[in-house]
Task: structure prediction
Amino acid sequence: MAWLVLAAWPCVAWAHTGRAPEPHDLWSSWTFAPGVIVGLALGVWCYARGVRRVWHAAGRGRGVAPWRVACFAGGILAVALALLSPIDKVATALFAVHMTQHMLLVVVAAPLLLAGDPGLATLWALDVGARRRSTAWWRSARVLPAIWRTLRLPLVAWTLHVATLWAWHMPSLYGAALRDERVHVVEHAAFFLTALVFWYPVLERARARARIGTTVLYLFAAALQCTFLGAAITFARHPWYIGHYATTAAWTLTPLEDQQLAGLIMWIPASLAYLVALVPSVLPVLRSPPRWTEPTIAGVSARGIP
Result:
């Protein structure tokens, strides 16, 4: 988890610079940011090295399942799409595209990267000596493990994630992120890192077959709050974000229409992502055989039924 945060930091820290693009700038708006490219390359190299060593020791496909490798690749692709494609620059012009960028990081990239089991792969990417020292240091440390145990509590993780989403969509903070590059860095980092914290208990519980009811409530409540925030943005009578007032006309949208589209993106696709994440947790329960059995003669008699 710690490596994932460090490797992703240069990616989420990249913010927007320069003039807001117009439609004719679309295909020339790719972002070749060294920090993002190096961060992604480092993450892929470290993960691939670890998986290769695990498969060499345990057999191909064991330790880290192939579907987890595919999830990690999908997460890397989602980060690249959000921060290197024209989405990154067009986000300065349209709130709807800005919302798409953030949702890619929060409900696509973060869970996919965690589903790839980067912790195990990273540990095996280290040499044997470094691996043992790292494990011994973590076991002997007190403060950081205690903080991590607190952060991964469902109530804490959920609250951090939801509070971050609502806070950064308040007009004052969102406007500050558009005006100040340093604030924008904090915004991207806050969205992505709190998303990692949020999705970790979901994936951990799915692996441990923990209480299904808690996971269902956890994700359903997240989808519900996303619906509320998306609906509030969609049905606002006036545009909230003045930073986009002068940039939407080139895309044949009014500021209010741009905001309504952004609200719908959060309301429907993003909320749906939380509900889709319920499937891996609920499916094993639906597949399990019923706990009741056909009553025997002795059982019927014992209940006093003739």
